[in-house]
Specification:
By secondary structure, the chain is mainly alpha-helical. Helix content is about 75%, strand content about 0%. Helix 2 runs antiparallel to helix 3.
Length: about 70
């Protein structure tokens, strides 16, 4: 996302969507990491939340790529 952020021609709407997806992914990662037992009490739920974080992170990457493709 760094290259897209620095390019004024990048689609700002798509960049904002990418930022929001990144925040959502980070929130889920923080939830599992700050729980301190890394899913010991409920490993199934921890894995589900981490899976969501990964999926949201990939979606953020795709949005940032789309924002850069709008430049070309």
């Amino acid at each position: 996302m760094c290259n897209a952020t620095n390019d004024p021609k990048a689609d700002q709407k798509l960049l904002e969507e990418a930022r929001q997806l990144h925040r959502d992914a980070n929130y889920r990662w923080d939830f599992v990491a700050s729980e301190n037992s890394t899913g010991f009490h409920n490993p199934t739920e921890a894995l589900r939340v981490l899976g969501e974080a990964i999926d949201l992170g990939h979606q953020a990457q795709q949005k940032a790529t789309q924002a850069m493709n709008a430049v070309q």
